[in-house]
User: Fold tRNA uridine(34) hydroxylase from Sphingobacterium spiritivorum ATCC 33861.
Amino acid sequence: MNSMTYQTLLYYCYSPIENAEQFAADHLEFCNSLGLVGRIIVADEGLNGTISGTEEACKAYMEAIYADGRFNKTEFKIDVVDEPSFIKMHCRYKEEIVHSGLRDPKEIDPNRQTGIHLEPKDFLEMKDQEDVIILDVRSNYEHSVGRFKNAITLDIENFREFPEKIKELEKYKDKKILTYCTGGIKCEKASALLLKEGFEDVYQLHGGIIKYGKEAGGKDFEGKCYVFDNRLTVDVNEVNPTIVSTCKNCGKTTPKMINCANPECNEHFTQCDECGWELEGCCSAECKEHPRKRPYDGTGYYVKVPQPVNLEKISKRKHKNFPPKTTEA
Assistant:
């Protein structure tokens, strides 16, 4: 029996990072030295990560983050897990830690202006008031498996589409807008965008759904919360839990979310066990017949297969005096 204790940490921090691309490379080396696995995005504007490892390794990581004066306002959401929630460690540099969809991402800066942060107990007290609108700023596949009771959801495939949807919300400009997402990071930019577009009473659930579950019992959050690791979804509501998602194929109520076994589709969708085994983890009969279909084991989670090394690209990097990059899964 495995007696090792593991944790999964969800966090973000908007704080300027000088030479962020080099920071990402150094940070990856540091995480590997601790034996951590996970996914971290580094940008000039800050950090966004979910990592997993032993309790000792996670503690050492948090201490290192806090010791760096740039990130001492970071708040970690900590889950105890039976096993690490990732297979490998990735730390990548990107233009933004959350893609805003703006031509000029510098139009908004959560360090200068963002919605009023509500702690979970305050969000709980406000959410049912008559002059309040609860706004889910997450993508379709996320809110399809779980969302707050009476929340407004947007038809978006990813957050970069959020700016295009703001016009649909103009009828709520006289309301208090309570935004929420998984851990709070998307709300930082969503609320800033709403303020920029003339919304006046804008709030955000500090720490997101995950913190709300831990500190407010998850009351009135219906279904499960989608997370960006091997677990796919986690329970949130300990007070009045319900299931709101249905099987894509038969319409039966089910809380289970999977990835399509066809790697060229890889759609996130909810599917009951019966349809899962019948379609072998695929979203459709067409995907079931795909020649590269991955074996279905009932979980619907698949480790990415490493891509072949591109020798031509490596040769070009060497020619430019760049060290060759390892193939990532």
In short: Confidence is low (pLDDT under 50) at residues 305-329. The domain at 114-232 is CATH 3.40.250.10 (Oxidized Rhodanese; domain 1). DSSP finds ten helices and 15 strands in the chain. The CA atoms of residues 34 and 57 lie 6 Å apart.
